[in-house]
Specification:
single chain, 222 residues, alpha/beta, Rossmann fold, six-stranded mixed β-sheet, four-stranded antiparallel β-sheet, globular
Length: 222
Amino acid sequence: MQKLIEIKNIFKIYNTGYAKVYALSDVSLNINRGDFTAIIGKSGSGKSTLMNILGCLDVPTSGKYFLDGEEVSELSERKLSYIRNKVIGFIFQSFNLVPTMTALENVELPLIYRKTEKKKRHTLAVSALEMVGLSERMNHRPFELSGGQQQRVAIARAIATEPPLILADEPTGNLDAGSSDEIMRILSELHNSGKTVVIITHDNSIAAMADKRIEISDGRII
């Protein structure tokens, strides 16, 4: 299969002033287009640092990251912004919804940044919310939704731009078992529709639902 993500000998080092902290140490991995991959590790293992690098939200201290064949360090800020907005859909543990906006308005937000025409962005946002089973909750604000429903809004926002790659950082971390199962079902359906899905998790039962598992400890893949 075609490689979508290729990381070679990545280090991420923080200088605290007293000592160097190795968040990632000599990490190499490949994720193929269409994979459903879980990156699992305990708190402080380096998995979120790795996710930030995969999402072009942070840069490694050394090593190379190729996304769809392009070396990320050589891309312009304009191209990186395009990737973050169009190529990658982000799902975070904390939902990151705007509290004063309805579910529909939250999902439309990245489409506004893309300058998508109003009628088209409404259609895309409605379709994304229908896909996650929230067609009857579109006009509700986050405080009127359960945690599981808020995470489904976040997923709808992530997929409204129709990105080929979904990065989910602890997407079930704040949810009960029933809501977690529903989120994983939606992510599995996205994978079955052709998306490449990468999940960061500390939960073995969540990681077991992916097709591929990468374990990280103390900044190293084990």
